[in-house]
Amino acid sequence: MKNNLIVLLIVLLGFPFSLFAQPDCEAKLRQLEINKAMVAQFYQELFGDKNPEAIHKYIGNTYIQHNPALPDGKDALYNAVKVWFKDAPKEKVDIQRIAADGDLVFLHIRSKRGSKTVAIVDIFRIENGKIVEHWDVIQEVPEKSANNHPMF
User: What is the extent of the structural domain holding 52?
Assistant: First the structure.
């Protein structure tokens, strides 16, 4: 009987605290969805619509670039995409998967580089509603695979 009373007391004392934890969890989940939507929209505007102005809209003033072909800073990215996208047609980006964890958003993308299909994984770090850091890996999709698992 005494053990049952102790368990009941613990449950009753802990219950009010669980009410406070739930809204925090819901707010974090909402923020993850907001971050995913923002990154997907940025990706479409920049890489699909070929609009370099998306950089000013979505990227923070401090931008860390882990791609070894580009220096840090949003101006460096802006100047690069103006060259990359010159006369390039608009397209719908093909986001295969999108996930978020904390302040990171992950994209798995099917894209074309000339006549070749490539798999791209982009990782973006979000701070105060802006993209502030970027990593990417690009891999050509081989004609033959050592296994039966598709890349997408």
Answer: 17-140
